[in-house]
What does this fold into?
Amino acid sequence: MSFSHRHLLGIEALRPDEISTLLDLSDTYAERNRTRTSCTEVLAGMTQINMFFESSTRTLASFELAGKRLGAGVMNMAMQASSLKKGETLIDTALTLNAMRPDLLVVRHPHSGAVDLLSQKVDCAVLNAGDGRHEHPTQALLDALTIRRAKGRLHRLSIAICGDIAHSRVARSNIMLLGKMENRVRLVGPQTLMPSGIEDFGVEVFEDMREGLRDVDVVMMLRLQKERMDGGFIPSEREYYHRYGLDAEKLGYARDDAIVMHPGPMNRGVEIDGTLADDINRSVIQEQVEMGVAVRMAAMDLLAQSLRVRRAAQDVSVMA
It folds into this structure.
């Protein structure tokens, strides 16, 4: 299979064929997860540690379930009460974990680059579950899988990503992945929520939502990242919904078969109309949650394969 990475730290390092490999295996796991034979032993004898320095519900649960379905021993570490609170550095924490000899380390951290730093200090495979405003690779992969299953392809589509682009690692990872797979990406939102220099990513930028949604195949809404805002980025939630919240009238500018996405958690009545979010004919939000488990199973499976190859090579080297 076309995937030989030691870690999964971001989309930026992945080639299109590697993305396709991940999605193809994810598709297999998605189908298995719908049967009684969803569990397998591909990670039997391996240990997975989930370290979340930011609170999470769906991502943590998804990784935990993925690991258990693959047969791994899974441990969740409560980092809010960890030694970091007592003054230990991130590197010291990494060295401590490395001494425990885990096989897979899943990390979410509020600072961009922290997961990459950890990966340089451990001997196991590291998966980035979101670092600051930088990347959230498995979210972009599960979004891509959802789109591919709904549309039958993942190329030459017109996709609008709407809302808080500036603070969103989900947006950043999706922009890179969708661009690599030859899609037309539009960003829609107020100027205050657009990062400077965003046009360098090869995207189209729209401040008017109706124009931005015109004839698109996919509408991907984003959560307002209030915890990352340190100023008045929007006048009010009511005004934001009026201009940028997705409702039936604005969706009418997209293609008749356009699908609606949201990475969650949703702020209903702020980013998206609740009725539209629950519309089984347009919304694939629940499918995104389902595909998240499959994508994380595939990612850990592929990284475990690479890890075994690397360790086998090391054993041969030692014997020689």
User: Anything to note?
Assistant: The chain is about 40% helix and 15% strand. The mean pLDDT is 92. The longest strand covers residues 125-131.
